[in-house]
Model the fold of this input.
Amino acid sequence: MKSLKSKKFHEINAGPVSRLSALLIDLSLSYGLFYYLNSYIEFRDFISEFSGIIQSYLGLLNKNLTEVFPILIVVYLLGQFIRFYGTLILGVSFGQLLMGIRGTSPFIWNRIGGGGRVFIETFSGALLLLDLPLFSGNISIKERLSMTRLIRVKGLISQKLRFFFVPLFLGLSFFAPMLQNLTLIDGITVSFTKEKSEKLSNQTNFDSYKYYPSNRFKMNSFSSLKNGRFLLLPSFQITKKGKSKKITPYFIIYDTKNNADGYFKITGTVPLLDVMLVGIKGNPLFKSKYPELFKILNEQRSIYEKRPYQEKYNKRTLINKLAGEQIEDLIQTSFELSYSSVAKHFFSNGPFIRGYVEVRNRLLGIVNKAATPEIDIIQMGAHKFLRFQQKLIKDRPGQKPYLETLLPISTHNALLFEFGWNKDIQDAISRRDFRESFFGVVDWYFDYKNVFNYPARLEDFKSVQILDYFTKSSLKEGEQSLLEDYVHMYYGNISKQAIDKKDKKLKGIIISCINRLYLVAKIKNRAKNIFSESFFKKLRLIKQSLQLDLKGIKNF
Done:
């Protein structure tokens, strides 16, 4: 026992190289802890506020420095937190333990005094003035103040494995972003699907084909709606937002063959280039991997914002084809990244994964959180969409249990669509057939405003255009009366169809749509007298006829 004791006191003081190595290991652990905590919105809010404080006090003008500097401070403080509690438990930090560093004080003071040493170190820095004596073989001023001493013991770990642990932990720190939201345990294979279009032949009756243009939905489909099998019923979702009401236009899709119904609505907008911009974070290889996208991300964003449509633009997107392909590759690579694919990712894309994780989490943040999505990239017409397919266990108001969230991936001005149906087999067939008929051949105009002119005649109107103009307050008198006439004619015709076919489900859907149209018109009239009294009377008559027919009374 005596010989061991004397041997202990002949050990040399822990030098700056050993201490720096231990600090790098502890900071690697804190980097992982930072990304784990970043899974929580409270922590992200704290980082955001802290960054604002740093920017206001230090006046950092460089955007990248403003973003990185607060993170470095937080990672350092988390590292000191890990070192403090590690010292209270082990007598030294975890990194110091692996580097063969030990304290010479008694058991209790190794921990209490060691905690004081870490506290002093937190505010003095790791290797600044208080550590200068280390370079001459003496103990640091921090050790003198805390009455502790750190030595480096000889042994297998300290001599043989110390040079293994440092690169190991630094290497693992590259994968710390995978701890955020713990979303990368299993990668998601993103497949590519092209939407089938309705088959045309010499026997096709083109009299049943019509254009369905919409400025609101930024599309123009040329479709027969499967020879009139599908009906599009414009409607509105009305929700309270504080003291005001939020009006969300959407159209109900009704299959008269299968008596199945779905809907297609816009749920939001996504500035796609801003999402792609986070892919640059922590990835010095981004420019060489995605040169065209990198170039676009560093240009003025106004170049890619929506602009008034001109004929010379045709169907061209503002983001060029090559950049669109690189966006698709970035998205696909982000979703396929997992623990099992790390080696493959390393050789294909380099060791820097933070940006890929950030892109993935941003995109996952746009979908309903109630169910894990299946993800693929689907082509609808000339545009590719990132598609999230979800099957909800519980129905929610205004939602169907089968949801598709669709995000176009070659435009900065991306609309976020929701395509909802029930989960029955008949609904699945209806969903497939409608997609082929309506989305198989469709043109998209996400980058432009006012693509289609207001219909000049009643016969030029299409059902989806009701949603373009019904909530507008700027229509001229002739345009307003034309809109009212078309709404009355359209719902009158499909009401007759529902009555003739004795379709109770369709009658109920039409009544629901008319109720919402009526309510929206009343809301708009509170601010300005837009809709005429005769229009309200016509809507009431259609609704009354349907209600009487449901009771077995003919009144149409």
Q: What stands out?
A: Confidence is low (pLDDT under 50) at residues 1-9. The first strand starts at residue 101 and ends at 103. The CA atoms of residues 481 and 532 lie 8 Å apart.
